[in-house]
Write a structure and sequence with these properties.
single chain, 335 residues, alpha/beta, Aminopeptidase, five-stranded mixed sheet, 9 helices, 23% helix, binds zinc ion
Length: 335
Amino acid sequence: MKINQIDTYPEALLSCEAKDLHALFPQPTLLHLQGKRTHPLFISVLLHGNETTGFLALQRLLNQYATQELPRSLSIFFGNTRAAESGLRRLDSQPDYNRIWPGTEIADCPETQFAKEIVDIMCEKEVFASIDIHNNTGLNPHYACINKLDNRYLHLANLFGRLVVYFLRPLGVQSAAFAEICPAVTLECGRPGQQYGVDHAYAYLKDCIHISELATHPVLTQDIDLFHTTAQVKIQEGHSFSFSDSSADLFFDSGIERMNFTEISAGTCFGSVQSNDAMPLSAIDEQGHEVTRQFFKIDNQQLQIKRNTMPSMLTLDERVIRQDCLCYLMERIRL
Ligand SMILES: [Zn+2]
């Protein structure tokens, strides 16, 4: 799978749906568009094929600049168009397109090779900044993520909103790879299909193509709510879970999503379990260490959190929970 590089696009790109992109770009495609400032802004959309907000925001931007010069060059990667065709995050036969980037722990494969090729190409072009646009399935506010605590990165994130998450894991994400060569963010724009998400992402892209330079002075503390991920929580293989069937190994309340981005205290119950002896969750910290027992305990068949924390990305989508994780746990960082 070699990267297909183009500098013009078919007219249909301006009006097609995300599911039609694969017909336009059957192989991984990088579109370079020339603008007034030459160092390009890199934008990736649809790394997860069912997360269409970034594509729709970008499409609006391209329509707006179809007949006028862009203020800055753009390089665009259209992500997992095959999965988008089926409306899925990824196909079962594919790796997750937001785990394949340099720094990944997954084995070498065609996808890790083209991801590396894209970073190399953008490095050579002296990329100005990188924006990777996502949706999530749970009830989450919009926020931006960064992988480096650097003022320019914080400013780029803060332009999207006051809520910013700093994380190092999982490995192999796009923004972490680009963070090595330029200011980079991942945007989380709520659920797919919400007009507000497209409007917000579009306004952000438009702001970004007009920036001449990112500030290097500190972001004012009153302008930002910065959190860092302390653990990624998965359900251990071999344990069943459910939001409706209380006979599953792990039974969650269907209102669990309401805990997203809420600071919860030690002792809060996450769900109930069949056995007091078998811990169904696994928590991994940012260094990759198993920290389950520091975060969770089972008391009288209740699964409880052991310390004050703030969950994010909790979702009721069982496929996402199996393919990705149950949630992340975070703590506030004071700058
Ligand atoms: Zn995503």
